[in-house]
Specification:
Layout: E1 3-5, H1 15-21, E2 30-32, H2 40-46, H3 51-59, H4 69-79, E3 91-95, E4 98-102, H5 112-130, E5 134-139, H6 143-152, E6 158-165, H7 171-178, E7 185-190, H8 194-206, H9 208-213, E8 216-218, H10 224-240, E9 249-254, H11 259-269, E10 277-281, H12 286-293, E11 295-296, H13 317-324, H14 329-342, E12 345-346, H15 349-358, E13 359-363, H16 366-380, H17 386-398, E14 404-409, H18 417-422, H19 431-434, E15 444-446, H20 450-461
Parallel strand pairs: 4-14, 5-6, 5-8, 6-7, 7-15, 9-10, 9-14, 10-13
Antiparallel strand pairs: 1-2, 3-4, 11-12
Helix pairs in contact: 3-10, 4-5, 5-6, 5-10, 6-7, 10-11, 16-17
Length: 462
């Protein structure tokens, strides 16, 4: 297995070099040269596997034997040893047509832990066996930062800097990042929104001299390993449902940066027989508009009750567009250039029909999000965080008669108590979260100015 750039101007790379590259040197995103297809017989064999065993099976198709099996196994089992559920991602049955896959049992109570605890172990392994200096740089709308920091804090040979939008993440998300006092962690709170943070990150990774000088590595979902790790729970959830091979299974996914839903698209291309992939967004509904009209055009930013999806520029959209245009790097590059110069791209005809065959999408309004939280708490005694509530609302919109749905619970509701309180629900915080409020914070508030951020990075990395 080799990896290539969506824009076609990077020499094919192996697995570890792809991990280290993050954003491709030509500005594109790395993808496998060929996606392996899992046979129905192999899928049937996987039904009895634990999450960790399934992880190892899936990764074996992608690692090119660059990592010895025993080393990979140790990384996987270490990564999930601190999850609060033995299944890692347990499946909860809500009613006869709905299951919720709980992705919030990791150390920071969010789905990002599933990929990022492993990535922390992987970067640590690479740093040791290659003698690499690793400086991780990322942006977060809330959950990625906490999970990434937790995955690498205190690890030798690694430093991490995370940019988050000042005052635009939940208080718990902020505390999970900024109460960490390890010397290898820097939190920059940027006066702006997530898209502003993400733009700076992409510009710095595109500056190959800066990237090389400071050994920058990506932790965001521009890194293919994030995508691949997330495919595991798509397979795991599907295989946990009894008789799933005889049912129409839909999966509804809260999505802002298109990474989580793209992992589902990858799983489907690998042979997972999912019926519908449903994109749930909020009032920052660029993805809903794209699926329904073919127009991909970032609009005005809106703050919502589901802040982790307050995103207008979805990083992983480029990966999907690459496959939509038939893996034609030249055509993909032309689209991305047009997006840069004109501020939008439009898909029509057969291509739009393919988009609508691949996805359904719903942009959930703020009040609908709160109403869904209240409804499921009252009717099923099941408390949803606001992002999961968007996923549930989308399930209600698109799940057909006789179909079964899995909605991803992407975060524990305690992470978004500001939204839960608006419904009149008083929740009890888990002990680990409650303890955060008494700890001092460590962060630097900076202007949304690339030069200012660069100076902070230089001081930290040097």
């Amino acid at each position: 297995m080799e990896y290539i750039s969506t824009r076609g101007n990077v020499k094919a790379k192996g697995f570890i070099d792809t991990v280290l590259m993050g954003l491709a040197d030509d500005g594109g995103l790395m993808v496998p040269f060929q996606i392996p297809v899992i046979s129905p017989e192999k899928l049937a064999e996987w039904r009895s596997l634990s999450f960790q065993e399934l992880f190892l099976e899936i990764f074996s198709y992608y690692t090119n034997d660059e990592i010895p099996y025993d080393a990979l196994k140790e990384m996987v089992y270490t990564s999930y040893s601190n999850f609060r559920a033995p299944e890692v991602t347990p499946l909860h049955k809500v009613n006869n047509s709905l299951y919720v896959l709980e992705l919030f049992h990791g150390p920071t109570f969010a789905f990002k832990d599933v990929a990022l605890q492993f990535m922390g172990e992987l970067y640590s392994y690479i740093a040791k066996v290659r003698g690499e200096i690793i400086h991780i740089l990322g942006a977060t709308s809330g959950d990625t930062g906490a999970a990434a920091i937790q995955g690498v804090r205190g690890k030798e040979g690694i430093k991490i800097c995370i940019l988050h939008p000042h005052g635009k993440v939940s208080k718990v998300q902020e505390l999970q990042m900024t109460t960490v006092d390890d010397s290898n962690v820097l939190n920059l709170s940027v006066e702006g929104n997530f898209d502003d943070c993400q733009k700076v990150i992409k510009e710095l990774f595109a500056d190959l001299d800066f990237k090389g000088k400071y050994h920058l590595r990506a932790i965001n979902s521009i890194n293919f390993v994030r995508i691949l790790a997330q495919t595991v729970y798509y397979f795991y959830a599907y295989l946990q449902i009894e008789g799933s091979d005889e049912k129409k299974i839909n999966i509804s996914v809260p999505s802002g940066n298109f990474g989580n839903i793209f992992s589902g698209y990858l799983a489907k291309k690998m042979g997972l027989p999912v019926n519908k992939l449903i994109i749930a967004t909020n009032e920052n509904n660029i993805l809903e508009r794209f699926v329904n009209t073919g127009e991909y055009k970032p609009g005005s930013f809106t703050s919502t009750y589901s802040p982790s999806m307050d995103i207008q520029v979805a990083s992983n959209f480029e990966r999907y567009l690459y496959y939509l245009v038939g893996e034609d790097a030249e055509k993909l590059s032309a689209y991305m250039s047009k997006l840069q110069t004109e501020g939008k791209i439009t898909i029509a005809g057969e291509a739009l029909q393919q988009v609508q065959a691949d996805f359904a999408a719903l942009g959930v309004k703020n009040q609908q999000c709160l109403d869904t939280i209240g409804k499921y708490n009252e009717e099923y005694d099941y408390l949803l965080d606001p992002h999961t509530a968007c996923g549930i609302a989308a399930y209600e919109q698109f799940n057909g008669a006789g179909e079964t749905a899995i909605t991803f619970a992407t975060a524990h509701p305690a992470k978004f108590d500001e939204s839960i309180a608006l419904v009149g629900i008083k929740q009890e915080f888990p002990e680990q979260i409650a303890a955060l409020f008494s700890l001092p914070q460590h962060q630097t508030v900076v202007e949304h100015d690339k030069d200012v951020i660069v100076r902070e990075l230089q001081a930290f990395y040097e």
